[in-house]
Design a protein that fits this description.
79 residues, alpha+beta, Alpha-Beta Plaits, three-stranded antiparallel beta sheet, 23% strand
Amino acid sequence: MKSDSSTELVELTTAQGEMEAEIIRGVLEGEDIKVLVKSDVAQGVHPFTVDGLGKVRILVRKRDFMRAKVILKEYRKKE
């Protein structure tokens, strides 16, 4: 069965916590790119990152990946 690129999710980047992930989500959703933020850490338990703990995955639809990558790169240049 073929995967549907309109719904298939791919990892764009990781953030160093929920706050950074929400900023990235806002930047991308402001450009009409739907975002899924996924974390294995319970919210509020560890508000910091230690050796990868607390990292948050940012996923976008496969069809939006390249555009999202460019948008995120441009955003990070401005920081």
